[in-house]
Amino acid sequence: MSEVNAATSGDVTRQWDRMSEVKQHAACWYLIQCKPKQDERAEVNLRNQGFTCYRPSHQVELIRRGRRVQLQESLFPGYLFIRLDRRIDNWSAIRSTRGVARLVCFGQEPARVGASIIYSIKTLADVQPLTQALCSGDRVRITEGPFSDLEAIFMRPDGEERAVLLLNLLHREQQLKVPLRSIKLSSEHPQGISRAFTGPKYA
Fold this sequence. Notes:
- By secondary structure, the chain is an alpha+beta fold.
- The protein folds into two domains: 26-126, Alpha-Beta Plaits; 139-185, SH3 type barrels.
- Helix content is 25%, strand content 36%.
- It has four helices and 14 strands.
- The chain has helices spanning 2-25, 39-48, 92-95, 115-126; strands at 28-34, 52-54, 57-64, 67-74, 79-84, 100-103, 105-106, 109-110, 112-113, 139-142, 151-158, 162-169, 172-179, 183-185.
- The strands form four sheets. Strands 1, 2, 5, 6 and 9 form a five-stranded antiparallel beta sheet that branches. Strands 13-12-11-10-14 form a five-stranded antiparallel beta sheet, with no helix packed on it. A two-stranded antiparallel ribbon has the order 3-4.
- The longest helix has 24 residues, at 2-25.
């Protein structure tokens, strides 16, 4: 009877060893550090080699040449995630991929990222609101025209190239329409108003 129990115990141990080995070699997520401002380039080149990548991004609004434009930018600039299997993937190809700086490691071991963390990031990124260039309540400085160097409060956009401001003139508040190219965000905000302003925001 003891021989049977010993055999059974040995089988269970070998099963756990095989399961641990499979788990150790299963595909996992890792972190890639990209070269400066080459996140997208690194992602494209890695995908072209057959690697599974995930570069979290969010939509941002910028003002370029006096116009509002919306772009997709990396949520974590300079980094992306890659899914690798120790058994079949050619890890050495990663280091020579254009746009890639290195595979992030803890000591000599590549840093694993849990699947639950990736899932959480994807969930948050899907509901990430548009990051606006200007929000209602932002303090701006007028940079050209008859009101140059005066500060005003941004109220709302007026089309793609103009903005409506609230300007204090002779102790009276006046609404003023100016080209977007003529204003920039001030380094100071009015008391009680910040980028977290709870009033209306434009999309």
